[in-house]
Amino acid sequence: MRHLILAVVVSLAAAAAFAATPTTAPLHGGVVTTTEAHAFETLLTPQGVRVFLYTDELAPAYVEKATGTAKLKLPDGRILDLALKAREPAAGEPTSYFCPMHPAVVRFAPGKCELCGGMVLYVQDHLFGAADLTGVDLSKVSAMIRVTGMRGGEKEATFAPAFSTPDKKAGVGTTGSK
Ligand SMILES: [Zn+2]
Prior knowledge:
Layout (H helix, E strand, L loop, with lengths): L1 H19 L10 E4 L3 E8 L2 E8 L11 E7 L5 E9 L9 E2 L7 E2 L4 E2 L5 E2 L1 E2 L2 E5 L11 E7 L7 E4 L10 E3 L2 E3 L1
Parallel strand pairs: 1-14
Antiparallel strand pairs: 1-2, 2-3, 3-11, 4-5, 4-12, 5-11, 6-7, 6-10, 8-9, 12-13, 13-15
The structure holds zinc ion.
Zinc ion binds next to loops.
């Protein structure tokens, strides 16, 4: 009987841990913008801009062959044109791990997908554009992001994430083209 109770407690704890893990964007504290067939999570940091790709159902997606550009307008009027290239999270950055086959399987620590027979979860990569934004009020930066070379019906998208309204998690895509 004691073992049974212990098993129930352990499984309840596991269920609670699972429920507490968000499975959709934003997973890294960024601003989400949805376009025709994708969603993007954009973060500004003192080191530059990071753009995570998601499916239209907000499940993590790999960058694959996508690249892009970002045009940043700083509060002092300066314009920065950045090239966006795929990279994995650097040490200390929030990192998500996902199963490409099972959108509900998302973790913030390395793990395996039991539904795939124990396949090791993938690290969600992102597009990164380096810029020294030290000392810049990031909430006053405006950005126009263009991502090209994506897979599927929507191969490229252009959008302006709404950094200035941090409470608003869902931005509106400005354009999306096939
Ligand atoms: Zn899986």
